[in-house]
Amino acid sequence: MKLLVPVKRVIDYNVKPRVKADGTGVDLANVKMSMNPFDEIAVEEAIRLKEKGVATEIVAVSIGPAKAQETLRTALAMGADRAILVTTDDAVEPLAVAKILAKIAEEEQPGMVILGKQAIDDDSNQTGQMLAALLGWAQGTFASKVEVDGEAVNVTREVDGGLETLRLKLPAIVTTDLRLNEPRYASLPNIMKAKSKPLAQKTPADYGVDTTPRLTTLGVREPSKREAGIKVQSVDELIDRLRTVGVI
Amino acid sequence: MKTLVLVEHEGGHLKDATLSAVTAAARLGEVHLLVAGEGVGGVAEAAAKIAGAGKVHVADGAAYAHQLAENVAPLAAGLMQGHDAFVAASTTTGKNVAPRVAALLDVMQISDVIGIEGEDTFQRPIYAGNAIATVKSADSKKVLTVRGTAFEKAAAEGGSGQIEAVPGGEESGLSSFVGAEIAASERPELTSAKIIVSGGRALGSSEQFHQYIDPLADKLGAAVGASRAAVDAGYAPNDYQVGQTGKIVAPEVYIAIGISGAIQHLAGMKDSKLIVAINKDEDAPIFQVADLGLVGDLFKLVPELTEKL
Question: Across the interface, do B103 and A129 touch by the CB < 8 Å criterion?
Fold first, then answer.
């Protein structure tokens, strides 16, 4: 089966985001950008399914600025076969992303779409579920284990009380959680090879999707700061302090 | 404005997360509730007693037994024809179902709401809580998930909602429940506990995690949490994880033991009322947010603390 893997270009997870002084957003000028970590896990899972002989082709998709091509090249270097870049300089909300992905899924007819459970920039945690709704497919969110079994896939999910396993009819949507796998690093030869893998360029208009935002950001501010307290010297002093505040 | 709150329940009991969602919904307007499940008569009665409850829509049937999003989302979207806002808690259940409802309604969801400024304007954390955005929704219907730590729990008693059965109950045929490994614990739930004792990678092993953390938690009647590093290393199960991608908590007291305080962890607990940190590294970032810090060897200090309490 074919696998579709959407990936997003986001601020690198090691960079501390800074709110712009004018309160309009987070400063991304000259900041290191990388593939969303949850999407890396999705790419890795797709490659493992191909290595097991379950999947035959991996198509990576990104919706974003022209520079998102770098993110797609990373996916290709890891092991995706080809890529689709839907270029737009506007911020595209999860609902519109899901609509574009739904159109691509109709064209490509994948057996599964595997994507990160959330992007570490807007932390929405919506795209996979929305895509499943638009396509009328089953969804296995926050996956920690994915096992294809004939015409179905068993997905173990990380839920609040522990783990839950669902059986989903294929085609299906899977969103990845942290412990699904550990993504590989692309080797230098594979990075070189990725440069010649096919990458199709599209726009949201090609898919007839209106990406006008439904949400307007009125302002972005720093969270309220928490001041450091005091250091106590001993367990006895700690217990005294806790008793004084009346918490124990 | 009429709101529809998704009631969370497990084993016939209404979960506390629902009470915070009701408080958020009440800020928007009338509170109606949706109970979907199998054999949920008791949950519906509990929901009707929540202070401020209006109609309680009850969909009781096998299709809803495991809260499968494929079955619950069309049900909720159908009921939304008579409501203006859908409100779910930011739990794994709410996060699973709400975006599916939003897409069926062609609405852009507002995730993890921590503040309500008006009927269309909300505050939510972005970038792992490093920034707070204020967003205004242009959609005629709203779909929200709300952070339990940001809204007081509504009173569980005192309401007099009217229970109404919802017809239907079709299986989508898309998904089915296979099984669950839900840890049975005598301890309080992480997201509603008054005190949390949380362990990090410095615990060194699963055995030591339980040997040092559990007795202290039991003595305090506390829930047990863990950092992502401790969960990734296999010292603690995934449902213990506190942090941006795990559980967001805000107890009266959060005791961080052997946790360095990575930003993703701080995002999950920095709204706790009192933070206590025990760590051997005096420069650990956790001390920048801790009200009370104790520098030293946890393997000596934690047993001493447990004994003296």
Answer: yes
- Helix (H) or strand (E) run with residue A201 in it: strand A199-202
Whether residue B184 is predicted with pLDDT greater than 80 in this model: the reply is no
Mutate to test the interface with B, among A95, A113, A129, A234 (most CBs of B within 10 A): A129
Chain A positions touching B106 (Cβ under 8 A) are 95
Tokens, residue B35: 């109970």
Q: Is B272 exposed, middle or buried (0-12, 13-18, 19+ CB in 10 A)?
A: buried
Return d(Cα A100, Cα A207) in angstroms, integer.
Answer: 6
Rounded distance, CA B182 to CA A161, Å? 5
Q: Is the CA virtual torsion A174, A177, A179, A185 positive or negative?
A: positive
From chain B residues 24-43, the ones with a CB under 8 A of any chain A CB are: none
This model of the complex carries an ipTM of: 0.96
Spatial distance between the Cα atoms of B79 and A175, rounded to a whole number of angstroms: 27
Residue type, B10: E
Confirm if B196 and B190 have CB atoms less than 8 A apart: yes
- The predicted model gives B276-303 an average pLDDT of 97
The string of DSSP letters for B254-278 reads EEEES----HHHHHHHTT-SEEEEE
pTM over 0.90: yes
Count contacts between A and B (CB, < 8 Å): 255
**Quick count: other Cβ atoms within 10 Å of Cβ A5?**
27
Distance CA A38, CA A17 (A): 18
> Cβ of A88: how many Cβ atoms within 10 Å?
20
pLDDT, tens digit (0-9, with 9 covering 90-100), for A154-203:
999 999 889 999 999 999 999 999 999 999 999 999 999 999 999 999 99
Query: Testing the interface with B: which of A41, A214, A241 to mutate, by most B Cβ within 10 A?
Result: A214
Q: What angle do CA B202, A13, A16 make, to 5 degrees?
A: 90
What six digits make up the tokens of B221? 């009647």
Each residue's pLDDT tens digit, A33-50: 999 999 999 999 999 999
To 10 degrees, what angle do helices B92-104 and A127-135 make? 50
Distance of residue B129 Cα from the nearest chain A Cα, in angstroms: 7
Mean pLDDT of B191-220: 96
DSSP B247: B
Contacts of B120 in chain A (CB under 8 A): none
